[in-house]
Amino acid sequence: MRTRSQSRNSNRQQQQVPPTFVEPFNLVEPIENQAPPVVTMDDNRTMAQLLEAPTEGYEDAIVVPEITADNFELKHGLLTLVQNKQFFGHDKEDPHAHIRYFNKITSTMKFPNVPSTSVKLMLFLFSLEGAARIWLEKEPPRSILTWDDLVSKFINKFFPPSKTTNLRNEITRFQQRFDETFYEAWDRFNDLLRACPHHGFSELHQLDTFYNALNSNDQDSLNSAAGGNFLDKMPRDCLRIIESKSKVHNSRNKPVVAKVSSSTSTPGISPDVAKLKDMVKALLLYKKTQAPAPVKVVEESCVTCGGAHSYQNCPATDGNVYHDNIKEYVSQAAAANFNQGNTGYRAPIANQIRPPSFPPVQNQGNNQFNGHAF
């Protein structure tokens, strides 16, 4: 018979026993604990065959469904078209554009009883090169089962969220450049939208962003085409007006650029460039306003009496041929001396013009007369 004290002691001992920890069952043993494969004596392979590297695990990441169509064969021309524009995985490449181009190429050929997605899965590897091909080869074997899986992994790899954020910011901060026509601005805006098809901007937000990014001249043109305020129209009407205006791009009229001071910051143009343009315009305007210098009319002056007539018509020398020759000689000698004086050299009088009735003077060596050699 157990007493009350004995039962209390037994209960106390049961409570003090620590719980036992049961180690979970490990399905995969560590490599160092794994025993090498056991080769039984019944195995008929040779030593060389047993030591060969295993050939398992070399399956491709893309799983192509089995094609049951008869006489199915990929044409060499289709492979060439796919390889003409390969994706290398560079930062400036657009994976969305590559998928669009690949879909156009593969849709040009139809095979009876063969799904188009199966053809795309077979050909996509040939459209990659460089880092993009290395990425696909590193994907786990048999991890891509459908065309949608392949597109999703490809886009997420080469179009990370940071690139999406940058493109969304470019769309939000879009501004027409100072030397950009309306057509060029609309085309560049659409390029940004196509580069990021998952931008999430509604059509209303796109039209509002583009309208507010235009210069005042193009905004006035849209308002005039809308018959009032452009923003009072419905979105589909606004889009129709923009597309109609953008088609008229044959006339390459550039927008008028207002003068920009060096203290202001205009998107697309630096203050130094604006100042240089203003200087060039001012110089061109100055040249256009400058009139040609007037040409002074040379008046006749007589070398004999100083009158406003030629020496031939001078009354003082009328009938005196010898005196007339002297005056002509003086006039021509004065002109020659003036021209030679401008060059700093004074020729000897023997080399100057002499009257026709005077005989030529022979050089007398170093004889001097009034500072000239005869």
Automatic annotation (TrEMBL):
It comes from the Eukaryota. Residues 123-215 form the Retrotransposon gag domain. Pfam families: Retrotrans_gag. Residues 1-20, 354-374 are annotated as: Disordered. Keywords: Nucleotidyltransferase, RNA-directed DNA polymerase, Transferase. The keyword Nuclease does not apply. GO terms for molecular function: RNA-directed DNA polymerase activity. InterPro entries: Retrotrans_gag_dom. Residues 1-16 have a biased composition (Low complexity). Residues 360-374 have a biased composition (Polar residues). This is Reverse transcriptase domain-containing protein. It comes from Tanacetum coccineum.
